[in-house]
Amino acid sequence: MDLGEIKRPTLILDPEKVRKNIERIAGRIEEGKTIFRPHFKTHQSAEVGEWFKEFGVSAITVSSVQMAGYFSQHGWKDITIAFPFNKLEIREVNRLAREVNLNLLVESDDIIEFLDKEINQPVKIWIKIDTGYHRAGISWKDTDQIAMLVKKIKQSQLLDFKGILTHAGHSYDAGCRDEIKLIHQESVARMTELRFELAALGIDNVEISIGDTPGCSTAEEFCDVDEIRCGNMVFYDVMQLYLAACRKEDIAIALACPVVAIHPKRNEFVVYGGAVHLSKDYVLDSENRKIYGLMAFPGKMGWGSVEKETFVRSLSQEHGVIKTVPRVLNRLKIGDIVMVLPVHSCLTANLMKGYRTPSGDFISTASY
Amino acid sequence: MDLGEIKRPTLILDPEKVRKNIERIAGRIEEGKTIFRPHFKTHQSAEVGEWFKEFGVSAITVSSVQMAGYFSQHGWKDITIAFPFNKLEIREVNRLAREVNLNLLVESDDIIEFLDKEINQPVKIWIKIDTGYHRAGISWKDTDQIAMLVKKIKQSQLLDFKGILTHAGHSYDAGCRDEIKLIHQESVARMTELRFELAALGIDNVEISIGDTPGCSTAEEFCDVDEIRCGNMVFYDVMQLYLAACRKEDIAIALACPVVAIHPKRNEFVVYGGAVHLSKDYVLDSENRKIYGLMAFPGKMGWGSVEKETFVRSLSQEHGVIKTVPRVLNRLKIGDIVMVLPVHSCLTANLMKGYRTPSGDFISTASY
After folding, report:
1. Distance CA A84, CA A106 (A)
2. Which residues in chain B touch residue A312, judged by CB atoms under 8 angstroms apart?
3. What is the tens place of the pLDDT at every residue in B108-161?
4. Which of the residues in chain A have pLDDT under 70?
5. I want to staple A216 with a disulfide (CB 3.0 to 4.6 A). Which of A102, A230, B273, B312 is the partner?
6. CATH number at residue B322
7. What residues are paired with A55 via a beta bridge?
8. Average model confidence (pLDDT) for chain B?
9. A contacts of B64 (beta carbons < 8 Å)
10. Which has the closest alpha carbon to A346: A213, A188, A217, A186?
11. Does B14 touch chain A (CB under 8 A)?
């Protein structure tokens, strides 16, 4: 990799790793049965989006109306906004629904009545279900309430009921790979049980959509679900690594950081690369220390293997402090570049707004 | 405040509170003795910068070469880049030094030699001292090493030795206001001791520059220091509130967030406003719960008082989940706007890239 042009924190994306990550998920999906509708909030890039098409992807997920607008302008015509519908953006949603096959999330009476009154284009409606994460959605146990909402949607002329959608985000609290699998299976089981109960109430053809990257990465098959929406799997990150949802070599982005100070007495060095580049997300290691990133040396095409006994121990606005051992420190001098693997790639990508590839190409992202 | 135009998370800035915050610090500085060189990394805005001029400020601090470039273009001619000098930006630094009175931070032999060779304009040099934070800098105890660096700087033709500079960032770990004061006093005492020892070695006229907002906010006077560089005090935030470095009513920015879901069973509601707006920084409350923000209702000119028993309990990319009590929940409906006071205003401002005032004006920030 040509480091000559790198003077400041620069986000490097390895296109080969990205393609492998997409292929790994896409390859596990049974064609004609389950749809892969990846979440594009992680990369936020039209160009990276194109790579998904090579694996048959034609429908996507986003997390905001603005992001839907960006990808619509870049040719995506089937978009789910996986965020509780925001009344205040009705005008933008109506405009968007003219251009694309739009899927919206609802979880209350109030919103369905509002949409029925205010929407002027046909849109597909998913009911957001809470299978244990307790962020948004109606509890999977509240069958009657859900059935009532479905009936209300079905009475509307422009609202087309599609199914039930969940994000089992509590998989991020799992302690190990087996626990992720358990949470995933439990979440899918709760969704299928709900579908079964709705059928008993006369509501048929209810599709199931699931989302989280840990669950989708560890699941062996997706036989009971109609759609998977994971997004982080395009890049993965240290959080997914700690969850055992990916391997070190799957992490597809890294922040190139100039070394600005070395402190041999403390076995630490300081890089230009802080919270405004990486975000303040962290994981805890086995000794309960906060880890804000891992480190690798730059390599010919990207970066080498992750250095052991080395981690970002603190971040301030522009500084990163990396704790390490003499073996690593002896290889470093001020002015070198090291590669920091981010803890949460979605937030890092959102902060950095653009990627460079090891061969020097620039990949842009949305800006609004 | 006219909420009509707010559809998405929008950062509101109260100019009156900002001016009061500036005045409070500026008013405690003895004219002709100590210089107030505020850190502009918090607001990153040329317009907000102008307000400091009303209080006699003419010299500033920034955290990156790019930020120095931005404020130089907006008329600031005396700038300290409070970050270890980054060799890889020498060309940009030389360009900048032609335009402004530039102050740089060094902490090693290596960098002084490099600057001596590569700089082509006169620049002022501060030696970064570590008084206990252990991020960057040379330990205040290493008098001999510091004296050696000073001598090296003084031998150079274009490097002009200015003094010793510290950031007592460990004040952020303080448990109470008294502890902040203690850390501040200790840090200043260590700096004056170092100055005394340098004088004994024949090095005179050593200025002292200190930085952190908690320390500067709680100190009653700044008699032993030549310069204070705090920046967060322009806005303050929930972190400073928890440190007792400010009062609730001093917090000068808040994120206006649409309410998108209400969960009475859990006494929670969901807002459009997440980690990409607020950042993932948090404080721990007395029950060891993570607090990602506090909440107030919008008011006539900004927002009202902070609601008790109410806090942002989790953030994902675009969602914020607010834990509250029926008293607050009963006043809310979907589509309302609530105001979230950020935990770390520097990171929130950096993410939002622009402010609106309660009277509807837009204030822009740097973009690079």
Report:
1. 6
2. none
3. 999 999 999 999 999 999 999 999 999 889 999 999 999 999 999 999 999 999
4. none
5. A230
6. 2.40.37.20
7. none
8. 96
9. 8, 318
10. A213
11. no
Task: Using the 3D structure, point to which of A166, A200, A230 is the last residue of a domain.
Answer: A230
Q: What is the pTM of this model?
A: 0.97
Q: Does residue A287 share a domain with residue A196?
A: no
The per-residue pLDDT for range A313-367, each reduced to its tens digit, is 999 999 999 999 999 999 999 999 999 999 999 999 999 999 999 999 999 999 8
Pairwise CB contact (< 8 Å): B261 & A7: no
Residues A335 and A263 in one domain: yes
Higher pLDDT, B175 or B356: B356
- Pick the residue from chain A with its C-alpha nearest to B138: A263
pLDDT tens digits, residue range B239-269?
A: 999 999 999 999 999 999 999 999 999 999 9
Residue A83 forms contact with B (CB below 8 Å): yes
Q: Mean pLDDT across the stretch B346-354?
A: 98
**Are the Cβ atoms of B318 and A63 closer than 8 angstroms?**
yes
Residue A81: count of CB within 10 angstroms of its CB:
24
Give me the torsion for CA of B284, B289, B290, B296, rounded to 10°. Answer: -90
Same domain, A44 and A165: yes
The C-alpha atoms of residue B7 and residue A60 are separated, in whole angstroms, by: 24
Residue pair B38/B50 in contact by the 8 Å Cβ criterion: no
- The answer on A172 and A83 residing in a single domain is yes
Tell me: do A224 and A326 sit in the same domain: no
Domain hosting B278: range is: 247-363
Nearest chain B CA: its distance from A309 CA (Å):
19
pLDDT at A221: 81
Q: Whose CA is closest to B5, among B358, B365, B366, B363?
A: B358
pLDDT of res. A104 = 98
User: Is residue B205 domain-shared with residue B298, that is, in the same domain?
Assistant: no
By the CB < 8 Å criterion, does B110 face chain A?
Answer: yes
Q: Tell me if B144 is assigned to some domain.
A: yes
The reply to whether residue B258 touches residue A346, judged by beta carbons under 8 angstroms, is: no
**Tokens for A41?**
């909030």
- In a shared domain, residues B225 and B251: no
The SS3 assignment for A33 reads coil
> Looking at CA atoms only, how far is residue A145 from chain B in angstroms?
13
Q: Is A82 on the interface with B (CB under 8 A)?
A: no
pLDDT of residue B4: 80
The reply to whether A154 falls in a domain is yes
Nearest to A135 among B270, B272, B334 (CB): B270
Q: What is the pLDDT of residues B311-332, one digit of tens each?
A: 999 999 999 999 999 999 999 9
Give the per-residue pLDDT at A220.
Answer: 82
B351 touches chain A (CB under 8 A): yes
Mention every residue, 6+ apart, whose C-beta is less than 8 A from residue A189.
none
CB pairs < 8 Å spanning A and B: 133
CATH number reported for the structural domain that contains residue A62 in this entry: 3.20.20.10
| B221 and B293 part of one domain | no
List Cα–Cα distances, B161 to A117, B126, B203, in angstroms: 70, 6, 10
Examine residue A28 and state whether it is found in any structural domain, yes or no: no
Residue A139 C-alpha, separation from nearest chain B C-alpha, in angstroms: 10
